[in-house]
TrEMBL record:
Name assigned to this protein: Golgi to ER traffic protein 4
Listed InterPro entries: GET4, TPR-like_helical_dom_sf
BP GO annotations: protein insertion into ER membrane
Annotated PANTHER family: GOLGI TO ER TRAFFIC PROTEIN 4 HOMOLOG
Length: 208
């Protein structure tokens, strides 16, 4: 099935492939053949993401985590490696500066389009990693979720989100147990925020 579906993706029938991945994996889950369902979903998510189909890839990544929960799969290195692999395939696209010529309709349209795509990428990645964090907390990881998953989410939110929510980002950094990365991110934020916001961000970080 994996090779056959790969061919469908490479022929450019991305959405047809998505439906096939979903239906085949669902049949495997119904038959309690969880290992095969996970293989199909992992392969499909990676392929779709490699071809730039973020919505499709994220959809399958979320189903992958859902199948981990249904199969009561433990939080272990092998599964975390697969989550890391899918995470690394989510695109990172620099968000354009908000300062555009507002009299130029094309500039404004392009900015709105870029910001919309960035928000969609962040929402997709957030849904996937939040589900993975919840799974890791329930099946063998720390009660707040596996720290590296929090680190991944915090980093992606900080670098890719058009509207920075430092409270949310800080919450994940605290659970990531990586104070050096958190500190360097706060320093970077101080260089790009409005006057007065930097003190507030540091105060919140300390209080967490």
């Amino acid at each position: 099935h994996i090779d056959k579906l790969k061919k469908v993706v490479e022929e450019g029938n991305y959405y047809g492939a998505l439906q096939m991945y979903k239906s085949i994996s669902a049949r495997y889950v119904t038959a309690q053949r969880f290992s095969e369902a996970l293989d199909i979903l992992f392969s499909g998510s990676c392929l779709e993401l490699e071809h730039g189909l973020v919505n499709c890839g994220a959809d399958l990544a979320l189903l992958f985590v859902d199948t981990l929960v249904k199969s009561k799969s433990p939080c272990n290195d092998e599964t975390l490696d697969r989550i890391r692999c899918m995470f690394k395939l989510f695109p990172r696209v620099p968000v354009p500066p908000h300062l555009v010529d507002v009299s130029d309709d094309e500039d404004v349209h392009n900015l709105q389009e870029s910001l919309g795509e960035a928000r969609s990428r962040v929402e997709n990645l957030t849904s996937f990693l939040r589900a993975a964090i919840k799974w890791s907390a329930e099946f063998g990881g720390p009660s707040t979720g596996y720290p590296e998953l929090h680190a991944m989410l915090a980093d992606y939110l900080y670098t890719e989100c058009p509207e920075l929510d430092m409270v949310r980002i800080s919450r994940h950094f605290v659970r990531a147990e990586d104070p050096e990365k958190f500190a360097s991110t706060l320093i970077n934020f101080m260089g790009r925020c409005y006057p007065g916001e930097d003190d507030l961000a540091i105060a919140r970080a300390v209080l967490m």
